[in-house]
Amino acid sequence: MWQTGSATDYFDLLNELKLIATARHVATAAINAAGTGYTVGDVLTIAGGTSTHVATLEVLTITGGGGTGPIGSVRITNAGAYSVDPTTTANAVTGGTGASATIDLTMAGTGWTVLRESERALSATVSAAGNGYNIGDELEVQGGLGIGSSNLVSAAVFVVATLTGGAGSGVATVTVKSGSEGNYEETPANAAATVALTGTGDDACTLTVTYESRVPDDHSILVLEGAAAGSPDPVQVAIKTFDDTDGIFNSRNWALFGFANDFSTLAMMHQQSGISPGWTAVDDGVAQTYGACVPLKDNDGGGSYPLDYYFSITDRRILMAVQIDSATIDAWMTMYLGFTNQYGTTDELPYPVVIAGCASTMAASALNVSISPVKTSIVHLLCDSYDETDDGPAFMLTPAGMWRQLANGTLNSGNAFSRRSQWVTTPCGFPTAPANTYQPGYDLIASGQVTWYDDIIAMQEAVSPTFPLYPTPDTTNTKQYMLVPVAVVVGEGTGVDPGDVWYPFGEMDGVYWFSYADGGAGADALDYMDVGTDRYRVFRAAHRAELSNDFFVFRED
Predict the structure, then answer these.
(1) What SS3 state is found at 417?
(2) What order do you get walking across the sheet with 157-163 strand by strand?
(3) 3-class DSSP state for residue 14?
(4) Most confident residue range from 209-213, 465-469, 483-487, 489-493
(5) How many CB atoms lie within 10 A of CB 348?
(6) Among 30, 35, 104, which residue's Cα sits nearest to residue 69?
(7) Which tops the pLDDT comparison, 328 or 80?
(8) What is d(CA 164, CA 162) in angstroms, rounded to the nearest whole number?
(9) What angle do CA 60, 61, 67 make, to 5 degrees?
(10) pTM, whole model, 2 decimals?
(11) How many secondary structure helices (H) and strands (E) does the chain include?
(12) How confident is the model at residue 526 (pLDDT cuts 50, 70, 90)?
């Protein structure tokens, strides 16, 4: 499913992802009644249902002569997020220049569920009154798994509001203490025991607590599971919000994680068996430094919100691109969470998960989009040292169950890690390129031979367009580009360049690359390509201001 929108901050963006990934959506749309007076490009809104995000359609063609007429075909522009389905037969869509069109819909789930989400206490009722309490006494809820404090549990505190009798009697009602609602990875079981922080109560009062999702005044964790139909196991991934200060810069970020083993509801995030690399420094009272990151705020005086997002979600993986709204920088943040399309069988490659962001806190300045450009995205992964001693922005779980760093990047005399990384993505990686080779010049692994992308692009100029690019807003001077799947390639060998033998491992699902075919004119972020009935959305392959010669593409699933 494909959904675009805007979030107010990096907490709200996490909530948007949860709502969209776990809800039902419009999967197909077909004309029931064509109506009259519609124009190509009209946006139609699906009617009815209960939703956090309403589905929309675009009129692709009309029938008959003239500039307006009955609808010939539509495409889904936003799939929506529904808890109650809209009418699926003859849905009376609204919007556009015409009238009377109805659409037949099919609805589907995305296949994602929440395994864990940070929550706080909202209210409570008294299950057992206890004795010896007074109005104003403070009761701390016991149990659960928390985040945000040195003892690993940021517990909820309730204040005694009324008593069952006079002073020193049992608790009748309580209210949550403002600022002490707790921050739980796993909430306590009800009825929850309490301990009196003030007063002389007998600690026998128990509460049945109601919780709600964490609001943006403390850091949050979200763990998701995708069904991954056809795979031996579901895919499990996690996001944690955090901030980072580097000199005058104060960044707001997501940290990304995957799990080699089943996620346990009995353990904290940092205690999970087989969690991907990152938990190595002190933050929030827990040892944790984040390897795969998505920076979501720059240092432009607080004006970098809202965040315009683009999600492409299947039950196997989540793709995201986010545009930082800055007056001076057109920066794109990207993320890949989930399974690749592996080339081997599910027995050979049972859990081919990739966790890819666009920056690493090992290089703190990478979190600040307002300083010198660095080309880093999910197709152009810069690790922080050429010998892989530092965690980079992407990791893959090998068939042996070990996390390996993925890297590639521009290869030159000062940035030679691409030749040493045995796990790369290509294009943009350089598994067999000689030293001091500069872009463009991207290796293509095919039929046991290495070919240069720039040679292919030069040759394809003369052929008829197969994958047309329609630059925005210029829709007349069409460009053509070759979409190349981004693949994970594994190298084996010895020495400085280990790539004596290279094996394609799998493709990052729905992610493609292309280079300028015309020397650098015409292409820009949010252009699109139509290939048959599929649409592919273009994003810049950089998370700062750099105008690069290459782009990557999401398929609008």
Answers:
(1) helix
(2) 145-146, 184-186, 119-128, 206-213, 192-196, 138-141, 157-163, 171-176
(3) helix
(4) 209-213
(5) 10
(6) 35
(7) 80
(8) 7
(9) 120
(10) 0.83
(11) 2, 40
(12) confident
